[in-house]
Amino acid sequence: MNLLLISNSTNFGEPYLAWATTQLELFIREQHVTAESNIVFIPFAGVFINKKPYPASYDAYEERVKNVFASKLGLTRFTSVHHFEDKVKAVKEADCIVVGGGNTFHLVAEMHRYGLMKAIREKALSGTPYIGWSAGSNVACPTLCTTNDMPIVQPESFETLNLVPFQINPHYLDPHPEIDKMIKHGGETRQDRLNEYLAVNQKMTVVGLREACALWVNGNQLYLRGGKPMIVFRYDAEKGIQAEELEPNSDVSFLMR
Hints:
Elements: E1 2-6, H1 21-30, E2 39-42, E3 48-49, E4 52-53, H2 56-73, E5 78-80, H3 87-92, E6 96-99, H4 104-113, H5 116-125, E7 130-133, H6 135-138, E8 167-170, H7 190-200, E9 206-209, E10 213-218, E11 221-226, E12 230-236, E13 240-246
Parallel strand pairs: 1-7, 2-5, 2-6, 6-7, 8-9
Antiparallel strand pairs: 1-10, 3-4, 9-12, 10-11, 12-13
């Protein structure tokens, strides 16, 4: 497998996909994705893009991402799967699959609806490069259960692509972020929510992937890229939930086993 799983598309105050451009450039070069490659985009997480609601948001999302891929990466054969009547066939003919972020529940619902879970999984397992950010990284996991999103629709199943054997929480925030200078968050933190998940799913591992970070999967090898450490959560029967920080550019292939 060849996966690039990005936490977030945009850092505050930066252009769209700006921070991720270096990671994208390195990945597509390594995977020999060229201007002649047929790139298929999965837009279904984008339910409200450029003030356009679903389904017009799909066209707006395609335009937003295609502009970056063309101008920054030189990749112009970029088509959203929503244009195809036979979406499974479109995925099967792709040289590279890109899954954008947004609402994970809507993304998963539409992927199940059109039979894309199986098609994309088979393509990724066969070696076709897969790029995802935010919700697009969530769906590379066994389930969508560690998303941050509101369940605006009910998918057929919470099961997703199961390309990696752990769960990702994109945009991971450390406990008690400040809302403003005077008020601190008084409700459940991100870690509280992940603790709840692990209390129920005690054999699963959760990766808290901070913003401006990405995971590279090359076969059974896994590397952390970007400028921040990530945090790995596990449940221990004696010690409870344990957290481990892993530094940027680490080989974290042990998570694939």
